[in-house]
């Protein structure tokens, strides 16, 4: 009996251990996307840092797919073959959590073949991770982190291809106040650097335009029960609810507000711009707004080619909010590597001097990406500041305010 | 603040409290009998939500022969929900018994920390199993049950789902309380909780009693899980953690080991949270709830209704 009990216990412990390993708390998984190059080809790895199992998973998985697509296309290109380089990707699951993000960053940094990182998504994760990349001369291009503080740290290796909250928040406020005519608002955020930053920028601009912020309140990004807050919102009778946060909680907030009879629509930022928001919110989120960085993919100059390539590679998946940006971010790193390889030779790319040259090459980017013209200012922020406003119409995000239209 | 807002916040709080009370019963039942905190209980809640969602999707899917009956009439919806809740409760009840048999029974005579760690292990295992085998994304809970404001008074409204949650919680609490205090098996459970060895010597099948506690607790947790999914509209693998911690707090607040205490603690915690969120700020709701817990524990270390625990020892 004693022996049997021990065996049962050991089996259970093994099961738990296996499950933890399989879930990979911040673990990294390498995916060689092209090994058909010459035997002497130098392997250059690009890290993909995104929430893949927890947090904004729908957005993170999209980032992963797009970066992998960019790398696959690069490996098939003549430029990479001529330069004697094979690109590979390594995935790091940051779970939308700052601590896990730093673990992922350190795992990336320990990979000698890793030149740059496409990521991360959440500003709260990207900011601490960028410090690790800076220490290790790894170039980082984020397709999605929009908090202004990210590029104000004085790091020369940090770039982003998305526009920042100080652009997105005020644009949203102008759309809400001027275009749609909402005069009073309740501002809610999820207490993350992203949500707080965006909500504060929105509130500031909304008030300066002449609108009235009835009250502001913080929730948690893991909350599911918003009924007490909704009751408070209902009593305040705002024209609009503004939410700074990610779709997981945002959709539930909007849904519960609708159930309680709050007529005001909810407006949010790029963190809610995903089909998951509508899937979770159902018919109760009809009429909600959100802003997202850049132009709708199909309105982008090279958008159709990207959509075709994406559909060919991932027939069952839809393009998520940051996919075009992730594709561009990965391509910027690829282009910089190829440029440095052309100047100094493929074997020099991973030397300290080569890494500096790659960072300099990304900084000097001046190209046409899928998301439009890409170049960086002194901080590493994109000079492309387009923000599009969308609305849920018949169960789909539909662009209602597109810059330049 | 006007009266309607206060009443509305109380309604919110009582609904939330009903769910906390159902989960808290599972903690307190197991603690009462084994003096062990079953940290895997929050995963019973999560599992219940998944089983309930699965049943609902299965029974209402177009390919299921009787789906028209289940979605067509009020009676059909009622039958549908009885089936959904019953299947979730029974499935998770059995899961609870299996977990007890595999992870806790071998450790029954081990130092008290060992089953606690085992419970944490089970919790992590189940969470990761749901993450890997079901989905990492939240799954929306389809709204088949109509949610309409039924009672309106003084500007506050109570919808059908809130009434269903609170009524079901109260009925289940009453049934369980009667079961424990009036039936022979209930008497055996009470005897086991007072002195396991003496109860065994009196001819009570201890393993049966413990298994039963591990069936009832998780089954009630599963019912709360289905309610949580229906009420908030989404099911996700990590959903058990926070309600689990809150309900454990509720059980301690009411006096752990005491069924009526768990119920009282659950409702109290839900109401305090809603009022704090409504009148201070959402960010302060947990602060207020835990300040009250600390105060109660300072002045009444056994919890609000904790005396019976002291008496029995």
Strand order of the largest sheet of chain B: 1-4
Provide the structure class of chain A: alpha/beta
Strand order of the largest sheet of chain A: 8-7-9-10-11-14-15
Class by SSE composition of chain B: mainly alpha
**Distance, first to last CA of chain A:** 77 Å
Strand content of chain B: under 5%
Low-confidence stretches of chain B: 308-313
List keywords for this structure.
heterodimer; A: 405 residues; alpha/beta; 7-stranded mixed sheet; 6-stranded mixed sheet; 13 helices; B: 313 residues; mainly alpha; two-stranded antiparallel sheet; 74% helix; globular; disordered C terminus
Overview in brief:
The complex is a heterodimer of chains A (405) and B (313). Chain A is α/β, with parallel strands linked by helices. Chain A is 44% helix and 20% strand.
Report on this structure:
By secondary structure, chain A is α/β, with parallel strands linked by helices. Chain A is built from 13 helices and 15 strands. Chain A has helices spanning 2-23, 57-76, 78-83, 98-109, 123-135, 165-179, 193-208, 227-236, 247-259, 275-281, 303-313, 323-344, 352-363, and strands spanning 28-31, 42-50, 85-93, 114-119, 139-142, 158-160, 184-189, 212-218, 240-244, 266-268, 289-293, 366-369, 372-375, 387-393, 396-401. Chain A has a seven-stranded mixed sheet with strand order 8-7-9-10-11-14-15, covered by helices on one side. In chain A, strands 1-3-2-4-5-6 form a six-stranded mixed sheet, with helices on both faces. A two-stranded antiparallel sheet of chain A has the order 12-13. In chain A, a hairpin with a 2-residue loop joins β12 (366-369) and β13 (372-375). In chain A, α2 runs parallel beside α12. The longest helix of chain A is centred in the first third of the chain and has 22 residues, at 2-23. The model of chain A is unreliable at 21-27 and 32-38 (pLDDT under 50). Chain B has helices at 3-34, 41-60, 67-72, 74-104, 113-133, 160-182, 184-194, 196-201, 206-232, 241-254, 259-279, 285-299, 307-312; strands spanning 139-140, 149-153, 156-159, 234-235. In chain B, a hairpin with a 2-residue loop joins β2 (149-153) and β3. In chain B, the strands form two sheets. In chain B, strands 1-4 form a two-stranded antiparallel sheet. Chain B has a two-stranded antiparallel sheet with strand order 2-3.
């Amino acid at each position: 009996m004693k022996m049997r009990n021990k065996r049962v216990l050991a089996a259970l412990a093994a099961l738990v251990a296996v499950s933890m390993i399989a879930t990979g708390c911040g673990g990294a998984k390498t995916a060689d996307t092209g090994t058909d190059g010459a035997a002497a080809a130098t392997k250059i790895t690009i890290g993909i840092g995104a929430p893949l199992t927890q947090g904004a998973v729908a957005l993170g998985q999209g980032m992963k797919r797009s970066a992998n697509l960019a790398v696959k296309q690069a490996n098939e290109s003549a430029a990479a073959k001529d330069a004697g380089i094979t690109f590979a990707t390594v995935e790091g699951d940051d779970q939308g959590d700052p601590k896990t993000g730093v673990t992922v960053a350190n795992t990336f940094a320990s990979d000698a073949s890793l030149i740059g990182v496409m990521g991360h998504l959440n500003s709260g994760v990207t900011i601490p991770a960028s410090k690790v990349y800076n220490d290790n001369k790894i170039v980082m291009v984020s397709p999605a982190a929009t908090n202004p503080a990210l590029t104000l740290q004085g790091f020369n290796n940090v770039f982003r291809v998305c526009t920042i909250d100080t652009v997105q928040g005020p644009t949203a406020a102008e759309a809400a106040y001027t275009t749609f005519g909402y005069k009073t608002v309740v501002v809610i955020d999820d207490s993350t650097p992203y949500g707080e930053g965006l909500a504060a920028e929105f509130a500031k601009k909304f008030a300066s335009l002449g609108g009235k912020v009835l009250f502001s309140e913080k929730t948690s990004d893991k909350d599911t029960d918003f009924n007490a807050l909704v009751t408070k919102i209902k009593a305040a009778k705002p024209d609009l609810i503004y939410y700074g946060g990610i779709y997981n909680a945002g959709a539930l907030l909007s849904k519960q507000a609708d159930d309680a009879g709050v007529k005001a629509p909810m407006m949010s930022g790029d963190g809610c711009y995903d089909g998951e928001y509508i899937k979770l919110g159902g018919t109760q989120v009809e009429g909600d707004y959100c802003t997202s960085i850049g132009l709708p993919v199909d309105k982008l100059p090279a958008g159709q080619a990207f959509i075709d390539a994406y559909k060919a590679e991932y027939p069952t998946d839809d393009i998520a909010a940051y996919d075009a940006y992730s594709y561009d971010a990965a391509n910027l790193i690829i282009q910089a590597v190829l440029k440095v390889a052309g100047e100094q030779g493929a074997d020099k790319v991973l030397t300290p001097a080569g890494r500096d040259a790659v960072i300099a090459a990304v900084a000097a980017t001046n190209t046409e990406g899928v998301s439009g013209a890409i170049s960086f200012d002194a901080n590493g922020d994109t000079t492309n500041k387009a923000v599009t406003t969308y609305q849920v119409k018949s169960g789909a995000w539909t662009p209602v305010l597109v810059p330049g239209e | 603040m006007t009266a309607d807002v206060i009443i509305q916040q109380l309604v919110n709080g009582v609904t939330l409290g009903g769910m906390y009370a159902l989960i808290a019963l599972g903690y307190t039942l197991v603690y009462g009998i084994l003096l062990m905190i079953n940290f895997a209980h929050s995963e019973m809640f999560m599992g219940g939500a998944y089983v309930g969602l699965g049943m609902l999707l299965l029974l209402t899917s177009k390919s299921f022969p009787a789906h028209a009956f289940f979605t067509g009439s009020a009676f059909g919806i009622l039958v549908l929900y009885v089936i959904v809740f019953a299947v979730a409760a029974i499935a998770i009840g059995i899961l609870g018994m299996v977990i007890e048999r595999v992870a806790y029974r071998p450790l029954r005579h081990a130092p008290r920390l060992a089953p606690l760690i085992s419970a944490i292990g089970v919790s992590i295992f189940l969470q990761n199993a749901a993450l890997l085998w079901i989905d990492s994304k939240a799954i929306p809970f389809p709204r088949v049950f109509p949610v309409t404001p039924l009672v309106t008074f003084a500007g506050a409204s109570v919808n059908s789902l809130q009434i269903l949650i609170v009524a079901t919680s109260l009925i289940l609490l009453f049934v369980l309380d009667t079961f424990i205090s009036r039936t022979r098996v209930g008497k055996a459970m009470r005897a086991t909780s007072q002195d396991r060895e003496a109860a065994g010597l009196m001819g009570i099948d201890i393993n049966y009693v413990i298994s039963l506690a591990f069936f009832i607790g998780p089954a009630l947790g599963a019912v709360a899980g289905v309610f949580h999914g229906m009420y908030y509209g989404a099911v996700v693998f990590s959903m058990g953690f926070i309600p689990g911690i809150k309900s454990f707090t509720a059980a301690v607040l009411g006096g752990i080991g005491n069924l009526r205490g768990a119920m009282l603690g659950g409702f109290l915690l839900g109401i305090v949270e809603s009022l704090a969120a409504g009148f201070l700020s959402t960010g302060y709701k947990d602060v207020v709830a835990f300040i009250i817990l600390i105060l109660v524990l300072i002045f009444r270390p056994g919890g609000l209704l904790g005396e019976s625990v002291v008496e029995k020892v």
